Amino acid sequence: MNTTLADQAGATLTVEGGMFVVRMVMPDLAEGSDVTDAALMLFAARSDLFQGMVLWDQYEAIYRVYQRRLDQVCEEAGAFTNLYDPLCQVAASYATVRGVRQHTGEKFVDEAVSCMERVPAIGVLLRGGLLTPKQFRLALDQTAAVVDTDVLAVIDAEAADRLRGAGNLTGPRVTEIVAAVVAEHVAEHDADAAQAAREVAKPRKKVVVEPVDGTLADLRVTGSVEDVRLAQDSIDAVIAGVCPDDPRGKAVRRSDAVIALLTGKVFACQCAGDDCPSRAGVDGAARLATVVLHVVARRESLTGESDIPAYLDGFGPITAEHARDIAADTDTVVRDLDVTDLLGGASQPSNGYRPTAACDALVRAVHGRCTHPGCDMPAYRCDLDHVAEYNHDDPAAGGPTCPCNLNPKCRFHHGLKTFVNGWLDDQIVDANGVIWTETTTPEGITVRSRALNHWLLPELGLLPCVHHDAPTTSRPAAESDPGRPRTRTDAKHRYRMRMRAYNRRTRERPAGPSSAVETPPF
User: Fold this and answer.
1) CB burial class (10 A; 0-12, 13-18, 19+) of residue 33?
2) Cα angle for residues 217, 223, 226 (degrees, 5° grid)
3) How far is residue 327's CA from residue 324's CA, in Å, rounded to a whole number?
4) Which residues, other chains included, contact 248 with Cβ-Cβ below 8 Å and sequence gap of 6+?
């Protein structure tokens, strides 16, 4: 069975006799039936498409109530400056019936108004089941700051078109696609407003502390996107210094590392091994020196000739003005890359298996993230994979080292393709130069995705391929199928044992202010 998710998204929502009627393909779940794995997988993974259709109708219903309330109060003086304006009144009724707070009610009514008035084209994608409710709200967030209705109409139409043609969608991909359209059109049609928005955002940098419970609190830091990305990568670099036997989860290690860095304490491995070099502390300075942020921008954007947005790896589109500010920083290294360099060959002259620096950077830039459906690992944290496997014995007979055959895959999905039978991927460049990736599961289900940042490098897919693999090649070291340090069941049992021990110690500890506070082992 070779099909696509779009072919199976046959859920329909109709109203018959004043009732919702949802129709979808229901596989035979009876034991012993001859239903295929593909049919079962599609039903399990995609049968919730109707949620977006229902939400759209909910939005339309509350929007009609809102419109009627507007008609009732439109003649009243100051109706839209009063505390209890029409939106507030409708939201209060909704919150009462739904049993939620007023803020939640106002947010829902505001989303409905945006769906019907501000971004109706994106709303149609919600109604058609292409966007989930969460993805639709992410798209709304990106358009919230656009106040020019004419510009917003253009953004709505173009964003909906890009989303419709993007193939597989995830939350970060929806955010980045819409953010790119917003950055491009706001800069083009209202550059002064875009600059003003950036200046308004600068004072919003802050540090907020909020209690979680009697022993924990949240520390939230708001900063520029590049500084936050740098901080996140720095934390991950530090926690990578502990050994695999450290009992803490990744989230706990991150928390401990941040507190240690901010308070001047030592962040050390907590394993039981006396010979672990990290037991005395991780050398944070040495590890932080390896952290690099990657921003890909067109040359004309950096020179000010154009306002085409740039792309910050791991974050998404940023304005050209923001990219110019980053480029002007004394710590920034600007490296020029020319797409036409690929005409001379995309592999290194001495090693046909390895791409050139230009090819490596351009492939990561045009895809932006791991190309496996559902994965959003930033491209610069991924491996570059030969889609059609490279033939080390006869390079001319195998998959070439070329943008048409290279894409980023995170280490997990790269290994999944390599070591698990049944997974198949392909990469296609269509007549318009758009790069598409296809992933087929062992059940025979094919999912198609468009290169995330084709808008940034539209010429990459139009370059004629020159597959001049070098006559010599270095074969990578053979890898074995990666294993777990313990089975899922064993890991679950060990976790439960730690939790039981923690709960017992908590129960047995005498009450009183002098009692030591212990952190739960999760």
Assistant:
1) exposed
2) 125
3) 5
4) 256, 270, 521
What are the CB-based long-range contacts (under 8 Å, 24+) for 496-501?
498/247
* Tokens, residue 218: 């949240």
CA atoms of 9 and 27, how far apart (whole Å): 14
- What is the rounded CA–CA span in Å between residue 342 and residue 197? 38
Cβ atoms of 46 and 9 within 8 Å: the answer is yes
pLDDT band at 349 (very low <50, low <70, confident <90, very high): confident
Contact 279/266 with Cβ under 8 angstroms? no
Query: Which tokens belong to 345?
Result: 């060959």
**What is the rounded distance in angstroms from the CA atom of residue 65 to the CA atom of residue 466?**
61
φ and ψ at residue 447, rounded to 5 degrees: -115, 130
End-to-end CA distance of the chain: 42
**105/114 Cα distance (integer angstroms):** 14
Q: In angstroms, rounded to a whole number, what is the distance separating the alpha carbons of residues 336 and 73?
A: 60
Spell out where 97-213 has E strands.
206-211
SS3 479: coil
Token digits for 204? 């919003």
Any idea which residue has 């070098």 for tokens? 470
Q: Output the six-digit token pair for 410.
A: 């995170």
Q: What is the DSSP letter of 507?
A: H
With contact defined as beta carbons under 8 Å apart, do 434 and 454 qualify? yes
| Rounded Cα distance, 226 and 315, in Å | 8
Q: What is the enclosing helix (H) or strand (E) of 171?
A: helix 171-189
The token pair at 2 is 């070779």
What's the 3-state SS for 64-118? HHHHHHHHHHCCCCCCCCCCCCHHHHHHHHHHHHHCCCHHHHHHHHHHHHHHHHH
Q: Which of 150, 77, 86, 156 is nearest to 114 (CA)?
A: 156
Q: Residues 216-263: pLDDT tens digits?
A: 888 888 888 888 888 888 888 888 888 888 888 888 889 988 888 888
**Distance between alpha carbon 66 and the CA centroid of its chain, in Å?**
34
Rounded Cα distance between 392 and 255, Å, is: 44
* CA 347 to mean position of chain CA atoms: 30
* Separation between Cα atoms, residue 414 and residue 411, nearest integer Å: 5
Full-model pTM? 0.75
Cα 144 to the center of its chain, rounded Å: 19
State the Cα–Cα distance between residues 123 and 114, nearest whole angstrom. 9
| 313-346 per-position pLDDT tens digit | 988 898 888 899 889 888 888 998 888 888 888 8
Q: How far apart are CA 86 and CA 79, in angstroms?
A: 8
